[in-house]
């Protein structure tokens, strides 16, 4: 298997008539029992898997091209090719094929597949007629030759016979000599016939003929023949373009003459295929498949030869990064690398992998940092194309380089931040470059293509880096994005300064290009919400990002308002209670509902998108958002009756209230009365009874009863001070309770305390203090409307005083504390 003679690349021809690489392996010809015949087997050199298993069919036409290629068709639209590393290996397999088919190995093609009608048509031909007799190559025979060439194109057998006759007699060179004579004599009729002849020979689709026609000696005369299309009033000037207009630029002198010749040949043949030859019809589309293959394999050879010349590539990189290099030279170097990377797409995966690793080793990424920051638009565009090839090939390679670079460079010169700057500062009115760069950024930050190994996780490392060093970098380039990203308390609430800032923003984004740019940024952020749950959540909440994004709901550009709405929709779609609390505390539905109401009765995309947002909340039964919407906005929305969404939300809200009431009614009566009783004296008696019952019911107590060892008078004086402080706090908390503004309605005010700012739940709860003593004394008990956090603090203070003063009652306190905490949590 290590024999390089048998080393091959397997190709298949796709629907676009392009060759797809299927892998590299070693070929052998073996008898396969399942196929009942000699077959070609190719096993992958990487893992030994079977890349190809093809029976050598006696009726299949095999073609040998360019000494190292064997091409054949296994079905009507399934073409295969084996590209050998060495000519000796190709000759060896070709002999095996010819042996199976009973053919002479000296032929370039074994046979043609023909249909029955064609067989009948040529049954009358004499068996001795092996080749077509060509007319003598003279000026007065050009019309006859043209008719002959045109007539054989419909027959595979006659095409093959004509190709053999042309090759054996050196006929093409004789025709090109006639072309020179016709041009000198200005023989227009003869030139028109030569056009038909040369075009017909190209459509014979034979690699051996192409090698003659595209040689340095003949190719310009072939192009000259194709200038004289009879359908044109005046001949084209293709030779003038190729020799004078199109200049071959050597960014670094190429010393290999074979490489130079291959580059020239490939460019000219590509020009013939793309520019000179007319677009083939449906019946002619297969006539030039070999021409496509000829160009393809030429490109593979060019890339391989350049890649092997390390001295050449090193010199190119040295000049590209040299500050002394002038702009014109650098532009040529970048364009060279762009074309070089485009050619590399023809390589098989293993070779392409080695190619890009070679570029990375030589320093392609640091070089791109330099050229992407240049003022020359053409250079930046070419650099962006090169960067896209690298990202498409290996996002991990780019991410690794950027993270290593961050340890040595400032944030503003990091490659990824240079990319962000180019995206933000794109001067194209259609933002073509910005769209391309945004797509590359999405690829780089997509967790789906990030690797996870035993020692490290690329996802966590790179996302930490991106959110610490890159995402906030966007704000430096546009006021609009700065407004969105920069935390500012003046924006958080309806203040005169926030109104002014929002007004400036909206007037700024009235510019269509700026609005498009913001739409791109919002698309990127929306992608982050979907794929970066932890990092983007911290960023959104720390920067209050959603509030600033929703300012764009007032934009005159509907597409931008929809982008802002889509951002919020993705957040709500996660059904994350952290996000839900952030939205309700910030009252962030208000700009969305205002946009819906301002839209009026217009039935458009904005209307549908807003309705879908609320319908999602209803269908998914997101209780916290449903309650917030109904309690704060239902009066404004109840008039919308063309959909049942808002009535459905109200129904869900009422059903949830009923369920809560049913749960409340199922609570044991003693707890329910303790929880909601407003008579302090009765509450005292119930609590005292509860403690006494706990002591008296021996065997049923949670802990063993303890004898009282201290009279009530021994209880510390500081308890009364504690209760006085507690009463003062209760009176303050009562002022913050919801105030009834109308029958059945409440007006809720959100405190801006530290707990609220930190996102803790500041909902008011009615709890009851446990009794201070258990000996029947009448201590005052009050209702404590306080937050959960405050209740926990009260428990800690109360426990400390009570247990220190009366250690024998610690066990009762455990039961009492459990009851109180249950009451708070149950709320």
UniProtKB/TrEMBL annotation:
Gene3D superfamilies: Pleckstrin-homology domain (PH domain)/Phosphotyrosine-binding domain (PTB). Residues 688-698 have a biased composition (Acidic residues). It comes from the Eukaryota. Coiled coil: none annotated. Residues 688-787 are annotated as: Disordered. GO terms for cellular component: centrosome; chromatin; cytoplasm; nuclear speck; protein phosphatase 4 complex. PANTHER family: ATP SYNTHASE GAMMA-RELATED, SERINE_THREONINE-PROTEIN PHOSPHATASE 4 REGULATORY SUBUNIT 3B. This is Protein phosphatase 4 regulatory subunit 3B. It comes from Pan paniscus (Pygmy chimpanzee).
């Amino acid at each position: 298997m290590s024999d390089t003679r048998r080393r091959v690349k397997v190709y298949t021809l796709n629907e676009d008539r392009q060759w797809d690489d299927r892998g590299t392996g070693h070929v052998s010809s073996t008898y396969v029992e399942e196929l009942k015949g000699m077959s070609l087997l190719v096993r992958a050199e990487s893992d030994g898997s079977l890349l190809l298993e093809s029976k050598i069919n006696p009726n299949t036409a095999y073609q040998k091209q360019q000494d190292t290629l064997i091409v054949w068709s296994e079905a009507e639209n399934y073409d295969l090719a084996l590209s050998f590393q060495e000519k000796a290996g190709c000759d060896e397999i070709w002999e095996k094929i010819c042996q199976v088919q009973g053919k002479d190995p000296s032929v370039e093609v074994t046979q043609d597949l023909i249909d029955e009608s064609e067989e009948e048509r040529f049954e009358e031909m004499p068996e001795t007629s092996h080749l077509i007799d060509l007319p003598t190559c003279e000026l007065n025979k050009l019309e006859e030759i043209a008719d002959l060439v045109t007539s054989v194109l419909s027959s595979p057998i006659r095409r093959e016979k004509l190709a053999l006759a042309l090759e054996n007699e050196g006929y093409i060179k004789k025709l090109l000599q006639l072309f020179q004579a016709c041009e000198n004599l200005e023989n227009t009729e003869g030139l028109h016939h030569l056009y038909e002849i040369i075009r017909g020979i190209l459509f014979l689709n034979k690699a051996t003929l192409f090698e003659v026609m595209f040689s340095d000696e003949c190719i310009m005369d072939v192009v000259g023949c194709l200038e004289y299309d009879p359908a044109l009033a005046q001949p084209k000037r293709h030779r003038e373009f190729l020799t004078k207009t199109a200049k071959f630029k050597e960014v670094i002198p190429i010393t290999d003459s074979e490489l130079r010749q291959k580059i020239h040949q490939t460019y000219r043949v590509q020009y013939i295929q793309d520019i000179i030859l007319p677009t083939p019809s449906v019946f002619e589309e297969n006539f030039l498949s070999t021409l496509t293959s000829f160009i393809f394999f030429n490109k593979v050879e060019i890339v391989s030869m350049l890649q092997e010349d390390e001295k050449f590539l090193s010199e190119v990189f040295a000049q590209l990064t040299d500050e002394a290099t002038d702009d014109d030279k650098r532009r040529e170097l970048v364009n060279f690398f762009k074309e070089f990377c485009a050619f590399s797409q023809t390589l098989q995966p293993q070779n392409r992998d080695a190619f890009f690793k070679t570029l990375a080793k030589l320093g392609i990424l640091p070089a791109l940092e330099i050229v992407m920051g240049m003022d020359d638009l053409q250079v930046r565009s070419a650099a962006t194309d090169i960067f896209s090839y690298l990202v498409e090939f290996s996002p991990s390679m780019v991410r690794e380089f950027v993270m290593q670079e961050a340890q040595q460079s400032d944030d503003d010169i990091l490659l990824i931040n240079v990319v962000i700057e180019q995206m933000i500062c794109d001067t194209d009115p259609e933002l073509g470059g910005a769209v391309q760069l945004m797509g590359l950024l999405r690829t780089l930050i997509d967790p789906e293509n990030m690797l996870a190994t035993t020692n490290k996780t690329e996802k966590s490392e790179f996302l930490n880096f991106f959110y610490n060093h890159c995402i906030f970098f966007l704000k430096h380039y546009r006021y609009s994005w700065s407004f969105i990203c920069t935390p500012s308390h003046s924006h958080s609430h309806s203040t005169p300064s926030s109104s002014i800032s929002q007004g400036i923003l909206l007037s700024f984004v009235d510019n269509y290009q700026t609005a498009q740019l913001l739409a791109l940024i919002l698309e990127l952020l929306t992608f982050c919400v979907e794929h970066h749950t932890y990092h983007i959540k911290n960023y959104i909440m720390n920067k209050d990002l959603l509030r600033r994004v929703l300012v764009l709901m007032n934009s005159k550009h509907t597409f931008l308002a929809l982008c802002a709405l889509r951002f919020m929709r993705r957040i709500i779609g996660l059904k994350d209670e952290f996000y839900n609390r952030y939205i309700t505390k910030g009252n962030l539905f208000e700009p969305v509902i205002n946009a819906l109401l301002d839209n009026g009765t217009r039935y458009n995309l904005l209307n549908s998108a807003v309705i879908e947002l609320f319908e999602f909340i209803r269908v998914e039964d997101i209780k916290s958002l449903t309650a917030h919407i109904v309690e704060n906005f239902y009066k404004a929305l109840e008039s919308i009756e063309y959909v049942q969404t808002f009535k459905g939300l109200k129904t869900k809200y009422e059903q949830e209230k009923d369920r809560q009431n049913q749960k409340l009614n199922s609570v044991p009566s003693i707890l329910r009365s303790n929880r909601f009783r407003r008579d302090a004296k009765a509450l005292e008696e119930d609590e005292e009874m509860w403690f006494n019952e706990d002591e008296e019911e021996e065997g049923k107590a949670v802990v063993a009863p303890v004898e009282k060892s201290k009279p009530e008078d021994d209880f510390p004086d500081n308890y009364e001070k504690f209760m006085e402080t507690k009463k003062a706090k209760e009176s303050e908390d009562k002022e913050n309770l919801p105030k009834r503004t109308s029958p059945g309605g409440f007006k809720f005010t959100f405190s801006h305390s530290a707990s609220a700012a930190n996102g803790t739940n500041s909902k008011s709860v009615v709890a009851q203090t446990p009794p201070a003593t258990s000996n029947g004394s009448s201590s005052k008990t009050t209702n404590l409307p306080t937050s959960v956090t405050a209740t926990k603090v009260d428990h800690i203070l109360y426990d400390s005083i009570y247990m220190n003063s009366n250690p024998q009652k610690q066990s009762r306190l455990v039961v009492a504390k459990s009851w109180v905490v249950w009451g708070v949590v149950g709320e």
